[in-house]
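New to this. Explain these tokens.
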Amino acid sequence: MAKKTVATLRSNTGKGYAKVIKAVKSDKTGAYTFKEEMVPVDNVKEHFKK
């Protein structure tokens, strides 16, 4: 099962963002790679549903 990591980053200008890290298994090699993205805090749960 993929590990989920969420770090919340806030700025003074408004909406807060979170850096999400998702472990993705390669179909070819079977090795795990990590995919990092910055998403708004409101969309974190929706991001992991994909």
Summary: The longest strand covers residues 17-25. The radius of gyration is 13 Å. Residues 44-49 form the longest helix (6 residues).
